[in-house]
């Protein structure tokens, strides 16, 4: 949506610059015709110098409008190429690979990563959520959503809510559950400055997986924090 609005604004500026460029050219043409008429009549009212000054001023303005028009047109073309043409060619290339008969595993995060590359973070989040619905036992969509919210949107509370939703909404395998819990504790400690909540999550890891390496890592983390 942001890029679409940028394209509309640039298109409007290009149209406005083109209008000013054309208008200045027409005014210069009319002034030159008036100068020719005045010359043919012997310039009885001595208006030629004034008309020439106006014509020169308009010509200078027309040159500036031309430079601005070229700059804006280049910017508009660049956005169109990056936003539409490059993805379109990439999509055609992908289809060419699939249609060639080669076995290529589809990337469930392709659309989300494409949105990420374009800086469309909200769209990327929605795409990752769709991937999570299609593969409920895959932790990666939730991890990526939290990363976007934490790093790109600078919204750690939203990232915390995302991880809590993921942890509480699925019966995860041990490794996946522990991974998500460690990431959640990291957010509380590093981003929110809430070591108490982070420590409670580590205690939960120890209670939930008492004889695992995750419990050992949680104990080490608690010792490190207590030593600070």
Automatic annotation (TrEMBL):
It holds the Pfam family TPR_6. Gene3D superfamilies: Tetratricopeptide repeat domain (1.25.40.10). Keywords: Membrane, Transmembrane, Transmembrane helix. InterPro entries: TPR-like_helical_dom_sf, TPR_rpt. The keyword Zinc-finger does not apply. The chain crosses the membrane at residues 67-86. The keyword Transmembrane helix applies. This is Tol-pal system YbgF family protein. It comes from Luteolibacter algae.
């Amino acid at each position: 949506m942001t890029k679409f609005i940028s394209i509309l604004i640039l298109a409007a500026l290009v149209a406005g610059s083109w209008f000013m460029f054309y208008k200045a050219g027409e005014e210069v043409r009319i002034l030159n015709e008036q100068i020719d008429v005045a010359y043919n009549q012997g310039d009885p009212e001595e208006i030629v110098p004034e008309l020439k000054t106006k014509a020169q001023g308009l010509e200078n303005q027309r040159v500036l409008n031309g430079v601005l028009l070229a700059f804006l047109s280049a910017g508009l073309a660049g956005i169109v190429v990056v936003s539409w043409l490059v993805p379109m060619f990439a999509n055609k290339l992908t289809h060419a690979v699939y249609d060639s008969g080669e076995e290529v595993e589809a990337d469930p995060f392709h659309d989300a990563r494409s949105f990420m590359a374009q800086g469309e973070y909200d769209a990327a989040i929605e795409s990752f959520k769709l991937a999570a619905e299609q593969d409920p036992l895959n932790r990666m969509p939730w991890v990526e959503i939290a990363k976007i919210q934490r790093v790109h949107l600078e919204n750690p509370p939203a990232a915390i809510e995302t991880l809590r939703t993921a942890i509480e909404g699925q019966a995860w395998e041990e490794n996946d559950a522990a991974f998500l819990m460690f990431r959640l504790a990291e957010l509380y400690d590093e981003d929110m400055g809430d070591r108490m909540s982070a420590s409670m999550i580590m205690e939960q890891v120890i209670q939930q997986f008492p004889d695992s390496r995750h419990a050992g890592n949680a104990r080490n983390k608690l010792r490190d924090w207590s030593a600070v």
